[in-house]
Structure prediction request, 839 residues.
Amino acid sequence: MAEAWANPGAFWTQVIAMAVNDVAWVAFWLLFFDRAGEVRGWDSSRVLLLFAVLTTSAGLVLGLLANARSVGTLAANGGLDALLALPVPPLAHLLVRRIDTANVGDLVFGVALFLVTGGPTPARLGIYVGGVLAASVLLTGFPLMTGSLAFFVGRGEAGDFGLHSILLLAAYPADIFTGAPKLILYTVVPAAFVAGVPSTLVDDPDPRTALALLGVAAAFGVAGWATFTLGLRRYTSGAVWTRA
Amino acid sequence: MSAATSRWFAVGVGTAARRALAERGGLAFTLTFYAVIVVVITALWRAAAESGGGTVAGYDATALTWYILASEAATVALNIRMIEVVGDDIASGAVATEMLRPASVLGVRMAAEIGRALPRLAGCAAVGVVVGATTVGAVPSAAGLALSVPALVLAIAANLLAQHAFAAAAFWVRDARSTWFLYQKLVFILGGMLLPLETLPGWLHGVASALPFMAMAYVPGRLASGHVEAQLLVVQAAWIAVLAGVAATAFAAGERRVQAVGG
Amino acid sequence: MGGDDGDGRHGDGRLRPAGPAIDVQGLTKTFTAGRGRRRRTVEAVGGIDLAVEHGERVAYIGPNGAGKSTSIKVLTGILHATAGEVRVLGLVPWRERRALTRRIGTLFGQRSQLWFELTPRQSFHMLAAIHGLDRRCEERRVAELAELLEAGDVFDSPVRTLSLGQRMRGELAACLLHEPDILFLDEPTIGLDLLAKQRFRQLLVRLNEERGTTIFLTSHDVADVEHVAERAVVINHGAVIHDATVAAMRRSLLATKLIEVGLSGPAPALPLDGVTVVEHGEATARLVVDTTRRPVREVLDALLEAWPVADISVVDPPLEQVIAEIYGVPRP
Prediction:
């Protein structure tokens, strides 16, 4: 965080860049629905809700838990060694060790978007917060899983790639698909649960859906932790080829 | 361009293309990324067409699909963060070293970047045809598809020139590199990458039609979607001439600045 | 079989313009630094006069910040002078940059002229096309350079996989492809291991002797001067403070060695001809030896016999110190 204050020019241009990015997406959706009307039950207010959940949780994970996406590269480059030398639980410390302050801008944008367009009542706000937390667990666990591949295969980019792909797919309502692709978005790459499902819950709080969301989030959270721990064990045993 | 310049430009494109073709990993990554993106976005527009009674802004589901396949190919083939990369090269003094060659710095870079993009473009085009054929079937117009091929090449040339023109700001302002974000969004919306320009509200459509971004994604998309409007290629060529002039002027000024204050 | 740059060059029977290869008179370059009220003018180099003839091997040396890089940037055209006259091969570098770059080669130690993801050979192909060399000429030249530089497989591996020493050979080939009249090198041996440095220096000498290529080299490594240059121009604080043949300098400057001694007990005074004791404390002592008057070996023998030596090292004096002490210029 000290770095951000040390170079305010770069920090603010990054924040502005993110703001532009988010505004552009909102603009795209507004233009789209303006022209297309309601599409498979989705309209602009539902999509903006989705986008609010997405940016809030992405801002949370990319901003405050910035190392979630970097596990792979850190493992491949030997960057975990410094971490292992410390007397703290490695995963927790790894996650909080880096803060990308500019991404916190996304978080602020997401909250603002919800407050402005999401019709915030106490109930809706509560579900929104819950949804964001579940989504964040998912957004941390999934790239941890893909990134931990680096412990076993040596290529570090999978963590970043995993995060990018799930974020990309999460930005669109899963209902635009049918059949196999739709199934993938609810299972293997649980992009639907990142923003689509939580945002739907705000409008229509269904306990079974909520339970499914929590279940999937927990599952991927645990899976992420497990693969990381297994991988770390392998790493410390010296069996991993690194570029270090 | 003199004969000598054309020769080294062609050599540059060829060498860079050959090298990019050898980088299997990077190529595979780009093509996979392209495939995922187009599957998602074409599905979105097909769903929109379905809800809209079969068409959106005059495009039916098939036309929309082929539009997106082309508009995305034109952009995914390029490193959209190039403004940042070139900006960094300027700031680090790498560009100053390039001034030690008896050739235009911008020209050599353009040759290398176009060369690098061509294999990706070809790969995306191939993947695009497969995706199109399997989701909506035949292309609306063979002539349109044929015209979209040169349009794709012109599109990346225009895009690269514009990015270099933007990046040249780094000769004066350190943080110009971050403008890549803004540029990318301009291409997404005003360039017609995410949505056909005809879907924009009237006034915005007018603005977009007057800006160079439309040459970078809209034109190949429009042609591939079955609208055989060959004059669009002329529009692209005109924009390339304008952007080349702007970029060359910016770089010349930047190089003079390097000579004054160091690289 | 040179390029079609139209000045009548053909192979080795080249026409050379009359006059020195490099002619500098009163070169001054100032920069403005700081912002707003703290704006000030910094003079990087001031009033430099220098003439280098064709075929010379000149080392342009000085400590960090002396103005070496600024000078060489002016000579190669990427920086324009604030005042003074500069002509390289009869051309004003920053004004006639394109024409000049066809006839000079440049190697900046910390900058690469090769494309990072390409192999050197592919880079040569691009550069040859840029210089207008036809295919046959390019192939002949690359083969010659491969032999001269003992490149082996180096030219066919991507640059990012090469070691620094290998990459430098590629860089050297790249700047010699078009058979330049002058080769400018800015700190070319930085980061190379000892063996690689020696080979590099030998290459430069061979290049100069076989082809008559003028060598202009900046360095802060005294060994570069000793093994490559016939003439050394010393600059400090942006001005030339010494310009002489290396032979003459060897007699005066480079004949000094510093001995640093760690003592484990009291040491008696040890007067020796040619030895100046700079410092003599309880635990350490420093001596300066004029090796033209007394070989280092004799001094060491005497020291080891008479003193309780715990640790001893013999070093070349740092260039800054040599310059400062010999020429009485206050140390920066």
